[in-house]
Amino acid sequence: MMTSCLIIALFFSACNEEQTSFSLDDITGRAKIVGNLSYSEGQAYEDSVFTEKVKYAVGKKVYVEINNSEFSPHASTGGYTSFETVTDENGNYEIEIPAVATGRGVQVLIRAENFLGTQSFVKSTEDGKPIFETRQVIFTSPIESYSLKPDELIAVDFKYIAKERDLDEGLTEVATLKVKIGVGKLEANRNYWGGTPYFSFREGITALVTTLHEEYRDGYYNTVERKYSFVTNAAGEAMLQIPVREKKGYLRAEIEVTPFRENNFIYYRYYDEFYELTGIYRQYQGGFIKSQDYGILYYDEYSTHQLEVRMVFDADSGQNYYYSPNDYNWDGTAFEY
User: Which of 80, 153, 202, 322 is the most buried (most CB within 10 A)?
Assistant: First the structure.
């Protein structure tokens, strides 16, 4: 008999002191896991465009852990077996594990090693352009759980989560915030002068988020402020991981979207008569064009909170053909999901 601490093909297993002996050679079934690991070093800004600096996680260990009881009837003891592989120069990995056909198969936990790195943050803006600073972060792997049977193949890709390493403030937890930006448009309507308002969504809108939350520490309240930049995806959305100290609390998020030009905004003066206007899209809330939106959110470790930001068209002077953004109920126009 062999102990459960074995060297097997291209990977190895580990054991703890409580684990008793059994042979993985008795398990003839095999399953395979493939995937890719990547992480973001933050954002860059060039030619008025934000880009995400996504890198492959090269040479990182990937672990697959299995409770030994999953190998029943070949093993019924406690303890675990851990298999390991390493990502290649493109962040890809591949690992083969023993699998049994009974029940659901074997339940596995898949994770990758964490590592220290840097990420660029937006510190401020100057003349409409972001000013970056680089901070040290810990890139943390998610943990995924799957069930596999013999001959199964699954792909498990990881994108590391960056947690800011702030030794003074100890921001070790994460609050998840989703921002959705709508672009106000008009569609023709025989019964409505000027058209009916609705929101569309687009990729590539840039914005700056300032987060503030108060912490009671050493007998005093301390306000922690952070700035982040983001670029929307095709659904007009961006997901942010905000470092915080506690697992739950209140967070104020202020969102400042970079105004952008529109050269063919369609304004329906009548149903069959329209004009193409030029102007700037700006943030709008409460009946007014404004410089930013904000929300005060209660966060916890299980929730994802969403803020909606409305952008409306502000026509250049001298050619508005009676168009005014205040003629429409933009606040009452719902986003479509």
Answer: 80
